[in-house]
Amino acid sequence: MTTVSAVSAQYGDVLHECVACKAEEISYWRRKNFQYTENANHDEFHIYRCNCCGTGFLNRPPHLAWLQSIYQYSGQALTQSITLEDVLAREAEFPNCTVDAARMSRQADSFNHSGNVQALDIGSGFGFYTQALRQLGYRTVSINPGTYENAVFRDLNGDDPLPVMLENYEASGQFGVVMMSQVLEHLLEPDKAINKVSRMMVPGGVLACAVPNYHSFLVKLLGTKDNACLWVPEHVNYFSVKGLKALIENNGFRVVKVEQITRIPFNAVSKRLGLKGRAATAIDGLVNSLQRPFAALMHCFGLGIYINLYAVKN
Question: Which residues, 6 or more positions from 69, have their beta carbon under 8 angstroms from its beta carbon?
């Protein structure tokens, strides 16, 4: 087993403004300790919150070199290699990435009236988004620094993504669709990232992004015990809908759709409660049957687990 070390474990600079809307009205929220692997030390992180848009962020965040030492393996906390068969087995048990990739690619394509069929998949992960875009007729460029994920990508799609982070990528052309699923929460300077994406896109092209919802019911229920959104040190930003819209619109885009997604593994509750046998089967069935109405209710109150946003380049 290969473990991911914390390398220098250096913190970055103190932040004085919101990473999303740039407001200076920020305040301390909570702290969270996290141990990345059994061989790493416990590290303390402080979470601040914007009083204007409600976005959260680490202050001080990890230094870029620290994050890169993690992302060279995976953006999904993998500490050892994984096979395509393992990934597909997980998807068969709990369809997740494949469902999101198909939905977001279709939505992005429906809003793309630029005529440009070049697509950029940033943080391409296991390759399901690239696969879905190609099935819609797009010619794709995929970038992702994670060694373990890229091996699965190769087996799924037959080629390799560029093993770089967005900060180091230089495009040779412009794109009609840019996909950023579960990426912005990882970036130390999301404003610069979206500005760079904007410059790589043609007018009328579509940016599709997905991020965890800082205002989800999980964060409100679990506080810093939540890891879907508050997964430190990998997640350095925790977006609200208002903050995400401000970030995108301030960089030359027009937001055309925002939706929330809530999907819970059917056995999540029984596993947390340590149930087995008939008790676990009964709870799993109940969770499965209540999932859709529960998700709809959460979305009505803005408490969904993930935010999906689609924006057209001006």
Answer: 4, 5, 6, 7, 8
Tokens representing 249 are 């619109």
In angstroms, the Cα distances linking 118 to 109, 134, 258 are: 11, 10, 23
User: Can you say how many angstroms the Cα of residue 211 is from the centroid of all Cα atoms in its chain?
Assistant: 5
Strand, coil or helix: 230: coil
CA 265 – CA 254 distance, rounded (Å): 34
**Model's pTM, two decimal places?**
0.92
Number of helical (H) and strand (E) elements in the chain, helices listed first: 10, 10
Three-state SS at 20: coil
DSSP label of 217:
H
Structure tokens at 88: 């597909």
Residue 150: name the closest of 136, 130, 172, 170 by CA. 130
CA distances from 299 to 108, 218, 289 (A): 21, 13, 17
User: pLDDT tens digit string along 71-109?
Assistant: 877 777 677 889 999 999 999 988 999 999 999 999 999
SS3 readout for 30-89 = EEEEECCCCCCCCEEEEEEEECCCCCEEECCCECHHHHHHHHCCCCCCCCCCCCHHHHHH
The model's pLDDT over 5-42, given as tens digits with 9 standing for 90+, comes to 444 568 889 999 999 999 999 999 999 987 554 445 56
Taking residue 5's Cβ as centre, other Cβ atoms within 10 Å add up to 14
Asked whether 246 and 306 are in contact (CB, 8 A), the reply is no
Provide the 10 A C-beta neighbour count for residue 278. Answer: 8
What is the phi/psi pair of residue 169, to 5°?
-90, 135
